[in-house]
User: Fold this.
Amino acid sequence: QRRFILCTSNENNICRDITLTRLRGVIEQEERPASLKYLRVDFIPTSGRLYYEYSDELLKHMRELIELETGSVCTAGGKAALVLSDEELAQLLDSSRLSGCRRLYMHSDLLMDASQSQFLRERGITVCRVPEYYYDETEG
Assistant:
């Protein structure tokens, strides 16, 4: 039942080439259920730019941010899902990818209609908005 986050500068690729390989080996050797993610962090400058000028860059990494913050995996069949557009929402609701899903993260610009809300409620899925502080440069 161990959980941890390892942060490193990855000098000489030690995290990607050595630590990650060793952790995968331990997980496989002990035959334990585990999830292991390697995330690379980058800076997206927002100062002096309008939101629409950098929003696409942020959206590319939204899934990783939510997974890192909540400890949930946002993939098909996972306990959490993420939709960033009306098209993604419609596809998700028309598929079997909601099996096992308990939490649906949605971009704050999306609005569901009553039937979509009811559909999710009946399946016990909690709808959460992507936190606004993901977009706010003053929150760091």
Q: What stands out?
A: DSSP finds five helices and three strands in the chain.
